[in-house]
Amino acid sequence: MMLMNIAKPVVTRKLWLSGIWLLPLLSALVGGWVLYQSMIEKGIEISILFDNAEGIREGKTAIIYKGVRIGVVREVHISKNLKQVKVTAEIQREAKQALRNTTGFWLVKPKVSLTEITGLDTIVSGNYIRMNPGEGKAQREFIALDRAPILEDYSNGLYIDIVADRLGSVSRGSKIYFREIPVGEVLDYELAEAQNGVIIKVRIEPRYAHLVKESSRFWNASGVSIKGSLTGFSVHTESLTALIAGGIAFYTPDTDSIDIVSNDTSFKLHSDFDNAKVGIAVTISSESAIDLEEGVTEVKYDAFKIGVVKKLSYQKTGENVIADIMFDPRAAELLKTGTKFWLDTPTLFLTDFSGLK
Prior knowledge:
Elements: H1 22-41, E1 44-50, E2 62-65, E3 68-78, E4 85-91, E5 104-108, E6 111-112, E7 117-118, H2 122-125, E8 128-132, E9 141-143, E10 158-164, E11 175-178, E12 181-191, E13 198-204, E14 217-220, E15 225-229, E16 232-236, H3 240-245, E17 247-251, E18 266-270, E19 280-286, E20 298-301, E21 304-314, E22 321-327, E23 340-344, E24 347-351
Parallel strand pairs: 1-9, 2-8, 10-18, 11-17, 14-18, 20-24
Antiparallel strand pairs: 1-4, 2-3, 3-4, 5-8, 6-7, 10-13, 11-12, 12-13, 14-17, 15-16, 19-22, 20-21, 21-22, 23-24
């Protein structure tokens, strides 16, 4: 009897996952990874209340910090009380630490005026919202500022206060002049605590900060100054820009060796250089006092007021009249040997500089 060779059975394990499920599984893994990445990369949602939504567009209006886009407006809705507009924005997580209860947001749009030109970049890019990081507790709900805040960077200039009885034609952006050169500008203004005056916030450019000292005198160089009577009539302004946009001038004695002042020092604003008592005293002899009047008769050069007669008196001999004149300190270089004066009714003119050296 012959034995038959019977093959041994081969045992295989059946895969628990069929190949048909491989593709869906991979898709699920990829989808999960994308979802995870989107969750960790998703920005932080904040809300900002504005008075109106003019110039703000969903998905377009950017939030900018130091020229870098750190967020974008997602939604714009009217507030529940119908008095404001609620803007919902998404901020990059890298800027999370900047979202504090003193953080400021404001809308930047083009502005062109006689005193300033700002936001011209928005003509191409459109209006945007600027952010100024603050300190304090973390916050997600904010109220927009109605204008850009004063960012006092004490390393970038001298910041002083000028106290005035009234604001006059001085405004934000008005220039500060020294010898008719713009050396600073008005940043802002506010009522004094006692409401008896106005405090004008001023920034002097770093390269000119040394010009401001404790003895410096400031006066209003804005608008038109008109004085007139039967013996005198004049119209004077610091410059066309100051006439229209407002401005402040100051003078510091050349002999002053006092160190420059510190930030937040206060100065008084005088109505003009005469009241500021920064003029140069000059005595002129005249044959007669006819058509001359104290405090009214002015000295002019090329139609600009450079001085005023302060006092009239007779010489001891009684032959001539002595006129004490207070000159604008900026006219100092004109007061040299050879300068001639003559009376041109109703004002006194300074002219003929051909012999000056």
